[in-house]
Amino acid sequence: MSLVDVTEPVRADELGRVHLIGMGGAGMSGIARVLLQRGVPVSGSDAKDSDLLRHLEELGATVHVGHAAEYVGGADSVVVSSAVRDDNPELAEARRRGLHVLPRAAALGTLLLDRMGVAVAGTHGKTTTTSMLTALLQYLGAEPGYVIGGTLVTTGLGADAGAGDVLVAEADESDGSFLMLSPKIAIVTNVEADHLDNYGGLEEIHANFAAFVDRVDDTLVVGIDDPGARKVAEVARERGKRVRTYGEAPEADYRVHGLSAEGFSTAFTLDAGGPDPVRCTVAVPGRHNVLNAAAAVAVADELGHDPEVAAEGLAAYTGTARRFEFKGEAGDVAVYDSYAHHPTEIAADLRAAHTALESRPEAGEAAPEKGNGARARVVAVFQPHLYSRTRIFATEFAEALALADEVVLLPIYAAREDPEPGVDSGLVARGIAHGRVHRPAERADAVRWAAELARPGDIVLTMGAGDVTELGPRIVEELRATRN
């Protein structure tokens, strides 16, 4: 991959009939769903059949499995997933006919043009923050539209047109495609080095976020605790943008303090500028999720909602698929799944898991008994994602994973990359200080080892952006088969 060429979005009524290449992906299917709900004629194709495709067919889309030039049919515009190669026959046909070809992000930008668009950007926390804000606005009766890079547990959907004025969208900085969005309000959670297969370094990432500032019409809501996001705030102020900040820093406009954990819920106090502080509770663990929740309440306030009532809406957030998602429990071992694939994300989730264990109501009594006198532990099952990311961050991955009590380390998930000589998960394994690392060659072995390593009272956390997510239910099954 590389940074995409910026294509300006057009109004939805100028698209005509729309054909989506790669329509079965999470992002593309969400856009297709919203277009269909808005009455736009939609067709699309994907290499494999899926439930998402069948759902879109039920909504009225013409669906094709596989790729062929004739599938473009009578389309006026063609939307292309970033995973689609230049030699795709449908893309070639669209170009031959001179059709309007838009990348996925430009189509998302189209959806924002005639709405009160809120874009959520940042290296980490985008999906969770977008989901929290959506759930909160639903609670407030705002009926928001949303396009999320995950699935809301409450609705089972990753996108919906909504009936209200607001549309909340996750903004992807990984390839620069967020520069095709022009939101009224934007959240910037944090800015760190990542996606260095696309970017030349952190300086280029900062330059792209600075360019994103220029795309925001009204207000930036920025996580002031993060040094990278703080720089974005400074740039925004220099350029005359309205900036509101959130975080634990004393100068934050929405200041977080008084964090307390009880199991997998976290409570905190938010000073939102009113006469009284607002007490909030969110049903996920970790300081990073508290900050995500604070950003959601801040945007609700900026949209004109009472922060205290908005904070009540946090209770409506019950989770997002792959974001510390509960997969099941057996043998008194709980299994969760996380999309964490960057060292910062891994460390945050592992710390959150330990905090959740230590703050459970029974932690001081029953938990040690369950572990034969030992404390409850965290077993991490991690699949590195991309050869380049593994090579660049091998030391940081090792330091983060050392926070787990036991580590099951899978081979690298290649995704869009070809293997690199000398780059494998051993680069990470060798740096994990406590040495309790297990490297199965087969996925079946990873399932068996995770189940064997876990003691009663422990948490098993599958982590990574690849297909490691499939292992959580299998670990639960293995625990049931061996512990009962």
TrEMBL record:
Protein name per Swiss-Prot or TrEMBL: UDP-N-acetylmuramate--L-alanine ligase
Subcellular localization: Cytoplasm
Biochemical pathway: Cell wall biogenesis; peptidoglycan biosynthesis
Keywords of the record: ATP-binding, Cell cycle, Cell division, Cell shape, Cell wall biogenesis/degradation, Cytoplasm, Ligase, Nucleotide-binding, Peptidoglycan synthesis
Domain Mur ligase N-terminal catalytic intervals: 18-112
GO cellular component: cytoplasm
Catalytic reaction equation(s): UDP-N-acetyl-alpha-D-muramate + L-alanine + ATP = UDP-N-acetyl-alpha-D-muramoyl-L-alanine + ADP + phosphate + H(+)
This enzyme's EC code(s): 6.3.2.8
Binding site for ATP: G122, T123, H124, G125, K126, T127, T128
